Amino acid sequence: MTSKVFAYGRxxxxxxxxxxxxxxxxxxxxxxxxxxxxxxxxxxxxxxALERPQFSKMLHKIRKGETLxxxxxDRLGRDSxxxxxxxxxxxxxxxxxxxxxxxxTDLTSPAGKLMLTMLSAVRRCTPDREAPARxxxxxxxxxxxxxxxxxxxxxxxxxxxxxGCRDGAYPHC
Length: 173
What we know:
The termini are far apart. Helix content is 43%, strand content 13%. By secondary structure, it is of the alpha/beta class.
């Protein structure tokens, strides 16, 4: 008996369809049957994966030894913490998690876990276009000056480590 392969897609608005994500997954060599395709349409990416209706439905069907394939890592969660939580949940169930965007990487494998850890670290250290809004733009949050202060502190720490590597202060570099 071959293990089942599930696929999941998500789009933010009701006007969009997740059909392109299914097509991308099938074109990558995963023959997804209709009963193993789950898509949340009209569900914001801000909604945690485990709270999305179709994702939750899929979780009740997937079993140990089976595989979930998604086209992009952001389909697994709203941010790096949510992605890690989602992958851990699936791993605890004994399922594999494959992301096409990451070269068909199985995020439950040792290499996949390392990649997740690195992506999470980079995400925490790298400001993005939305950061200023989270730090005091629309919807409140921390003032913009705090964002600039956090960014300056991160840059200073990075410069310290890089400088220490050049000077031999950190032999592990």
